[in-house]
Write a structure and sequence with these properties.
Elements lengths: L2 H9 L2 E6 L2 H4 L12 H4 L2 H4 L2 H6 L1 H17 L4 H9 L4 E6 L5 H4 L5 E3 L2 E8 L5 E3 L17 E5 L8 H12 L3 E5 L11 H7 L3 E5 L12 E3 L3 H12 L1
Parallel strand pairs: 1-2, 1-7, 2-3, 7-8, 8-9
Antiparallel strand pairs: 4-5, 4-6
Helix pairs in contact: 7-11, 9-10
Bound molecules: ligand BV8 and zinc ion.
Zinc ion binds next to loops.
Length: 238
């Protein structure tokens, strides 16, 4: 299966991963659009937009609090760990759409959180930002300045953090291999990263039990789960 790209794999110096909710699925965290997806129960536009936050901050906070509890109780899986281990042998950068922090908990150092982090909050008024460690006495939580605090995540219609996005594009443009794992590539602009990589001659490898909109652009598309495929793929790169 890997013969097609084995020489590129052997010679690769810089490997960039683009990951999505699927890579955390085997840690027990539901994906967005899958059959067990979060968004089966909730309407994504109801809960992940700035307008709905201002209309009903308590409801949005309750959703994030329940997700955060689930995430803090979860553990990185073999897919996250394989990516972290690979960094011992190659230059590895992780561009993740996930807000769960599992790549960092698996030991990955170069992680760019394109859509923010569920374990970080920021004030809607002043520039206060902090990590969250425990749950709040009341929802929505308030800042010392009186403003409402919000999860430090990127909602639909909001721009990605400029510096993170700028770095992500530069890493996508300068890698030998891009491994796209656990993402439907449904959300922009994160879904343009494989195009930047391809334009700069990178080998594209997709790991996803299902096809995606970019499957035919991939040099190799593995119809497997990430916790199975990544340790195997990484063993070829070590
Ligand atoms: C922007 C953070 C511009 C919060 C998220 C129409 C209306 C409104 C907006 C738009 C529109 N058309 C386009 C847009 C733009 C919009 C967008 O792309 N919408 C889509 C839905 C059409 N994008 C934006 O709004 C972005 N901002 O464009 O700003 C701008 C510019 C300047 C100034 C102002 C504005 C912001 C997008 C970020 C939204 N935030 N999350 C939170 O998490 O609560 S998006 C959310 O979806 C998550 O981050 C998630 O990661 C992301 C993508 O989903 P996936 O990760 O791919 O997850 P999904 O469930 O879809 O797929 C899982 C995959 O895994 C599947 O393929 C499955 O087969 C696979 N899988 C399952 N199990 C496994 C597995 N793979 C491997 N192993 C397994 N075991
Ligand atoms: Zn404040």
């Amino acid at each position: 299966m890997f013969e097609a790209v084995s020489s590129q794999i052997k010679d690769a110096k810089k490997i960039v991963f683009v990951t999505g909710a699927g890579i955390s699925q085997e840690s027990g965290i539901p994906t967005f659009r899958g059959k067990d997806g979060y968004w089966r129960k909730y309407d994504p536009m109801q809960l992940a937009t700035i307008d709905s936050f201002y209309q009903n901050p308590k409801l949005v906070w309750e959703w994030y609090e329940s997700r955060r509890k689930n995430i803090l109780a979860a553990h990185p899986n073999n897919g996250h760990v394989a990516i972290s281990d690979l960094a011992k042998y190659r230059d590895v950068v992780v561009l993740t759409q996930n807000i769960d922090g599992l790549h960092q908990r698996a030991g990955s150092k170069q992680v760019f959180e394109l859509h923010g982090s569920i374990i970080r909050i920021k004030c809607t008024v002043c520039d206060y930002k902090d990590d969250i460690t425990d749950s709040f006495a009341e929802l929505p939580p308030k800042c010392k300045c009186g403003g409402i605090l919000r999860p430090d995540v990127v909602w639909f219609g909001e721009a990605l953090p400029q510096d993170v996005w700028y770095d992500a594009i530069n890493h996508a443009k300068s890698c030998d291999i891009m491994i796209i794992a656990g993402t439907s590539l449904a959300v922009s602009p994160a879904n343009t990263l494989p195009i930047f990589a391809k334009q700069n001659g990178a080998t594209l490898i997709e790991i996803n039990p299902e096809r995606t909109t970019m499957s035919e652009d991939m040099d190799l598309s593995l119809r497997e789960t990430s916790a199975n495929a990544l340790p195997h793929l990484i063993s070829l790169l070590e």
